[in-house]
Amino acid sequence: MATSPCSSSGVSSSSSSGLGADAGLEIRTRSVEQTLVPLVSQITTLINHKDKPKRSDKTLQAIQRVGQAVNLAVGRFVTVGEAIANENHELKEEMSVACIEARRAGETIAQLTDVASLDHPESDSHITIFTDKTGVVKAARLLLSSVTKVLVLADRIVIKQIITSRNKVLATMEQLEKVSSFQEFVQIFSQFGNEMVEFAHLTGDRQNDLKDEKKKARMAASRAVLEKCTMMLLTASKTCLRHPDCESARINKDGVFHRMRLALEQVIEIVTDSRPNGENEMAPISIYSGIKEFKNKVEGLRENLYFLSKENLSTMLEVILEHTEDFTDSAYTSHEHREHILELSKQAKMELEQLVSVWMQAQNQKTKDVMEDLEVAILKTCQCMNELKREVHSAATSLAADLLKYHTDHMVLKALKITGVEGNLEAVAEYTCKLSEQKEQLVEMCRLLRHVSGTEPLEITCIHAEDTFQVTGPQIISAAETLALHPSSKIAKENLDVFCEAWESQLSDMSMLLREINDVFEGRRGEKRVYLSLPRPGKHNANLKALKPVKLDTEEQAKIAKLGLELHLLTSDVDSETEKWEDQENEIVQYGQGMSSMAYSMYLFTRGEGLLKTTQDLFHQAEIFATEGTKLASALHTFSDQVHDDDKPLLLLEAEKLISMCKQLQITAKASVQGKSATFTKVDACILKTRNVMTLLCQLLPLCCKLLRKNKAGNGCLKPAPLWREERIRTSTKVHTPERRPETFGIKSLENHVTNMTFLESK
Predict the structure, then answer these.
(1) What is the pLDDT of residue 739?
(2) Distance between CA atoms of 79 and 173, rounded to whole angstroms?
(3) Which of 522, 546, 679, 755 gets the highest tally of CB atoms within 10 A of its CB?
(4) Nearest to 63 by CA among 45, 75, 76
(5) Residue ranges per domain, the chain?
(6) Is residue 54 very low, low, confident or very high in pLDDT (cuts 50, 70, 90)?
(7) How far apart are the first and last CA of the chain?
(8) d(CA 490, CA 496)
(9) In the CATH scheme, what architecture does the domain 30-116+130-156 have?
């Protein structure tokens, strides 16, 4: 694991008390960060206690309880750390040192907080938190540092598991490449499938745990490639086995194996935070990010006239204008957009020249008139850059919308399938040329969209889409050529179908990506998180084509405005309740936040705003909302299993109500209707039932929060977790599945014990 300054919120929150984790440790995952939060909270409470002249017995007892609780929890934590060390010999020395340090620091804190039995805790005969605050800070710093080391070392085990899983997949892939019989292939592919499932689970967990959104997006892209390529590998390999002398079949298969290896390598790069040969990843700068940085520098002149040079500012503009050439040089940019971009580029240079002139003048004399001229120059420069950004956005998104609409019918793919089955090599060659043209259009579209995507994760998604079109196009061509050479081959036909489906799927993904890019540009993501998981048209929505999407007219919006407003108020209430939870990663909180976000997008629909443009969009969103509600109910049932409080029957009753309401909403959302009046009635019913679910959610969230707080206060409303199962688990692991031993311990088991440190909050 690479080292760099620690930046986790859990650790940095302690800085006000002089606490801090080891500067050589970087926390890259949410699980490690969140595990440290309760420990930091408790120690900070201890350090920041108020030094009052008179201290009640209650205060002294509270301080002692916190110290003892920290020490006990650290003891349990260290026991797990030592067990991890014994299971992983390469980490044993480092882990043991960190565990010894943590245990020593925990004992020191317990000694310094042993004040409840003292009549005069500041007595010189006994060193305590009141007489040696520096000692407490020192012990706390050591404790945080050592606990962080243990967590990061345990995280290495997770990385090791992913690397081991990847190596298994690669080894089996090599066997698959060399097989010469169907029987052998089937046996090895079965093993390969199981290994890919394991790899998918490990990398999926890692993706969700990553803090860096850019890495998360890259991981998602790599995992998507592996998922699609697994089916491609099956059909391409079978085709090659059936037609061993066919060159196009071999090229097709080799392409799949090559792409899978690249994706596997990228996953390991992300997980280990390394690049081959030590090279740094240099992603090309987009126009959007370039303009954003340029404007920040220009606006910074208001505060400081000397923090950068005019040459730096000129260079930044030159880089932006060089990138606009991607638009002006593109054969797919309209004449009108090209002219506007060139005009704005010329204007931007002129505005910068004027700005620099006034700026230099302001450095010499800061008169009122000069500073007013500078403000005008700053505003005009930023306005020009905004217009340029708007123009390139319009050029990219209008091109994307036109291309996606034009290629919706997939006529070239259909023609390739037909001519391939007919064995018409000449016609296949003609349509492969058309597919190559289509590929070039879509690749160009992705490049231009990347410039205006607005966020790094969306930029990465654009790059992934570009790569997919670049690779899948030639693979479709080789699969079509194979079918044309063997028109009666069922496996060759199936293989072509698989690659065509991948192409169609990527086109469908582009429609969603375009919507997200527009959303970012228009700033609607800034109002509130919007849930972007509308189901895609396809085989799971059979009735979609029969329904014509419509929008609400002004009169209908007026009728439903009151109901929409009620929904809006409820989303605010739910957001307020979720903010009260200390653990924002809690499953119940996350479902609540997601449902609130979806309900908010439905409220925006009643105003004719937001991402839900048509009634069909609204009905899809309602279905997803109901599905999330059902998942929340399942999480509540799981939570209730831990509860032996009087509130348990009420919690179960409310969970059952939620299930019933969500089922009713799903039935309403899926019901087929025709006619304007019937459609509006269905919209009204969906909003109404969503409002009812949100009302229930407003009652459920505080109830669950109360139960958790009772637990923290020591009232015992939750059943205690089984204390120590490590010996039993370790014994059974050795007997039954020794190859999975590293999973016995890890971040999760450590997390459980650090979480138990939250016993007492400062009043």
Answers:
(1) 36
(2) 40
(3) 679
(4) 45
(5) 30-116+130-156, 161-272, 287-401, 554-712
(6) low
(7) 40
(8) 10
(9) Up-down Bundle (1.20)
Fold identical between 30-116+130-156 and 161-272? yes
The pLDDT, as a whole number, for residue 281 is 54
Mean pLDDT, residues 581-602: 85
Q: Widest CA span of the chain, in angstroms?
A: 100
Q: Which fold has domain 287-401?
A: Four Helix Bundle (Hemerythrin (Met), subunit A) (1.20.120)
**Which residue shows structure tokens 């990553």?**
210
Task: Please state the length of the chain.
Answer: 763
CATH superfamily to which 161-272 belongs: Alpha-catenin/vinculin-like (1.20.120.230)
How many whole angstroms separate alpha carbon 578 and alpha carbon 373?
Answer: 48
Amino acid identity of residue 493, one-letter, is K
Question: How do residues 59-83 score in pLDDT, each as one tens digit?
Answer: 677 777 777 878 887 887 788 778 8
Q: Give bridge partners of residue 210 from the DSSP assignment.
A: 29
Which residue do the tokens 């804190």 mark? 109
pTM (2 decimals)? 0.63
Dihedral sign for Cα atoms in the order 753, 755, 758, 759:
negative
DSSP 561: H
Amino acid symbol at 379? L
Distance CA(367)–CA(363), nearest Å, equals 10
Helix, strand or coil for residue 724?
A: coil
* Amino acid sitting at position 637: H
Task: Return the CATH architecture of domain 554-712.
Answer: Up-down Bundle (1.20)
Which pair of tokens denotes residue 426?
Answer: 């000449």
- Here the tokens at position 485 are 């050479």
- By C-alpha distance, which of 170, 112, 157, 144 is closest to 36? 144
| DSSP class of 391 | H
What radius of gyration, in Å, describes the C-alpha atoms of the chain? 31
Would you give the distance in Å from CA 156 to the centre of its chain? 21
